[in-house]
Amino acid sequence: QEKSSRLSAALFGEDCEISHDQLYELLKYAALGKCHNATQPSWCRIYHQSHLAGVVVIVLHEMSQLHFYKFYLQFKHLRRVFRHRFTLTPSANFLASLYGEGANLKPQNTAQGLTSTSSECIPKSSDLQCDPIIRKYGEKKRGLTSYTLTLEEQKKNDYPIKGSPGCKGYIYTECDQQRTDSSPLFGLDCEMCLTAKGNEVTRVSLVDAQGQCLLNELVKPESTVVNYRTRFSGITKKMLLPVKTRLPDIQTRLKKMLPHDAVLVGHSLNADLQALEMIHPSVIDTSLLFARNEGRRFKLKFLAKAVLGKEIQCEQKLGHDPAEDARAALELAQFFIEQGPAKVAELNLEMLLTTEKLAEVSQNKAAFQPQECRVQKQLNEPPHLSKPCFLDCLQVTGQKPLLLGGQDLDFSGLRQSNLSTSNKQILQRALEDVPLSTFSIIQFSLGPEYIASHLLAGLCEKVRSKLTDMLTIYAGPFEESFCLKSVKKEFGRCGPIQSLTVVTETYQPYVCIQYEVLEAAQLAVESLNGAEVAGSCIKVQRPVTAAVLDCDVLIKELELDVENEGVIYVAGLKKSLTEMDLQEEFSQLKDLETLFLPKDLQSGKQRNCCFLKFQKSQSAVDALEVIKGWTVKGSKLRSRHALASGHLWRWIWQMNHSNGKQGGNILYEKMEQLSDSEQDLRKKVKKLDQHIKKLYRSLQNNTLCVVLFPGVN
After folding, report:
1. Residues 686, 64 contacting (CB under 8 angstroms)
2. Taking Cα atoms as reference points, which of 141, 230, 159 lies closest to residue 191?
3. Which of 165, 193, 211, 702 has CA 20 to 30 A from 242's CA?
4. C-alpha radius of gyration, the chain, whole number
């Protein structure tokens, strides 16, 4: 949280998980600016870095997201002041990996110190088996037909499919000839502008397998342009004025140009085909070809630089060049097919993505070597990507980093300026010394007695149990012969249901419903309590347990959380609606900034709900009024203020799907021990929050302050 709000992070929803390398990028650039090859982070932006007075990192030793949400009400200052919140991926050696030693390092002896540390770019053969590319394709080289998307993959990734209801009126390319490994490849890319109708094509480029541009045409959209998106599309009002070509003209030309066994290649090609309103049966999507974990995707700009050594989408240019992008996607597919998955995996793209050396390596190769040489050398002699600790770099520039922590804490080999024994003493030293340092790491701890593994297991079980109760509602009573399908349909309009069971122990039947998101359960309580469902006037309530006695207070605080400011939840959507459909439906809402359509993290299927983020809080309030009674494609919408930001939604899903079963007696003992110490723990956490508040308030304006819950592993 930067006190002058110059930190901008454009992550929302499922994107709010960051790695230690991404955090490293942020802290290094904040501390060093453009010195020592530091560059703007890839995932967020710091404006006017030279105006930063300092960087303060507060580490809450061995505390995790579990602690934050278990003691959410106690972390009063932390949740109200820090506007940006992200899930941090686990790390075996947290501080070491964060401050430059590399996540794969083995502990080194004191004599070796920090300066001799390094991390290899090329993964070991055992690591290759875990690479998502190897898991998906295996290690052997294959022909191009092995990399074309199956019909199921096309459906899952929102490609226009012949005969599907959403593609009525789309033009089929009629390229029905059977594909072989020698079928011709064509690169395709479009640029779109936002019109009253939605996203419409304004420029189309098609390149052949030799990279020759066959089509590079401006297109006049049907509807009035609302936003030219010139920064990305490169399209201006002046450019489109003399244009006569319309979408049907382009469709006809493309249909004539493509051979009957053509394979189209593009990066997130589904968006281009949807905008072109065309269906093509055989595609290679480079955003899916270069597979990553958990459904994430590499950007085309990064892949072009890392794999081909090419700079595209340069900031000096006005917008993207679709011919350049089409050619880059095509060359990436050719590279993948020719070299095979094993060679691609050896590039270790995840490492390259988070290493500032990438720019230097790519620029040198692009400047001094022809492409064939460049690719071969990259395969045979990958760059050595060691990450020097930027705390050392700070000392070289004459700045002295401050490291404060208790004597029992391990700074993983980092030099400590001072050692203290209690959080109070650490705070006192921090208040005195932080103003004298440009980079400080302050580490607080709850103490070993509160982070023992058996207590953590009990704590985890309590949080899981509380979340389950908050996600669960009971509805009834119903008539003996009530229609369960009608009940499921009505309650399903509030959001995705995880489970539904009939309670028969009561005089009249009730239904127990567990939802996947907090908003859905709350919406059901608010909108269906006292309503007539399946012919009965029913009561809707959460289970009455000790864990949910403070549920109303918690719901109110979550609603007021700064992360949920200007965010609303909308349910009742048909699952057939795409993100583009929803963008179009909600485009009339004032100040709409982002739309997040959650997906099941296991199956990848989208949910019947979405989150809308607005630039202003009042616009979100107004939108709730506007949406009341709205019907989209025959489905009536329900909405309310958001309760769970993206990372919390993801975490709830993980908590619900992790194995929480324990041996009965063991768990009972753990819960007993936890109850004895929980009151003390609450007081400790509250005190810790006050320490952070005091330290934060003492910071100079323009200080970047980051609080980390690193967890145990």
Report:
1. no
2. 230
3. 211
4. 28
DSSP 498-524: EEEEEE-SSSS-EEEEEESSHHHHHHH
Q: Whole-model pTM?
A: 0.55
∠ CA 647-697-702 to the nearest 5 degrees? 75
Q: Which of 470, 474, 472 is nearest to 538 (CA)?
A: 474
Cα–Cα distance measured from residue 401 to residue 99, given in angstroms and rounded to the nearest whole number? 12
Beta pairing partners, 703: 54
Residue-wise pLDDT tens digits, 433-462: 998 888 999 999 887 766 666 677 777 888
Spatial neighbors of 161 by CB under 8 A, at least 6 apart, are: 151, 154, 155, 167, 279
**pLDDT of 5 above 60:** no
Q: Give strand pairing partners of 278.
A: 171
Cα–Cα separations (whole angstroms), residue 177 to 206, 254, 675:
20, 16, 69
What is the Cβ-side half-sphere exposure of residue 269, based on CA atoms within 13 angstroms? 30
Sheet strands (E) in 69-197: 87-88, 171-172, 185-195
Q: For residues 199 and 221, what is the distance between their CA atoms, to the nearest angstrom?
A: 9
Distance CA 647, CA 653 (A): 10
pLDDT tens digits for range 199-250: 899 999 999 999 999 999 999 999 999 988 888 888 999 999 999 999 999 9
Q: Which two tokens stand for residue 618?
A: 């009042």
Please report the sign of the dihedral spanned by the C-alpha atoms of residue 651, residue 656, residue 657, residue 658. Answer: positive
Element (H, E) at 32: helix 20-32
Q: Looking at residue 677, what is its pLDDT?
A: 65
**Integer Cα distance of 284 and 383 in angstroms:** 29
Contact 180, 264 (CB under 8 A): no
Single out the residue of 577, 626, 616 nearest to residue 597, CA to CA: 577
Q: Residue 70 in 3-state DSSP?
A: helix
Cα 44–chain centre separation? 12
Question: CB of 100 within 8 A of CB of 388?
Answer: yes
Q: Are 345 and 128 in contact (CB under 8 A)?
A: yes
Distance CA 483, CA 467 (A): 29
Residues in the chain: 713
Confidence (pLDDT) at 396: 60
For the record, the structure tokens of 109 come out as: 């002896």
Structure-block tokens of residue 204: 């189309």
**Confidence band of 19 (pLDDT split at 50, 70, 90):** confident
> For residue 331, what are the contacts with CB-CB under 8 A and spacing of at least 6?
211, 304, 308, 310
% residues pLDDT > 70 (the chain): 78
Distance, CA of 158 to CA of 161 (rounded, Å): 9
Distance CA 170, CA 337 (A): 31
Q: For helices 518-528 and 484-492, what crossing angle results, to 10°?
A: 110
Residue 359 has pLDDT above 60, yes or no: no
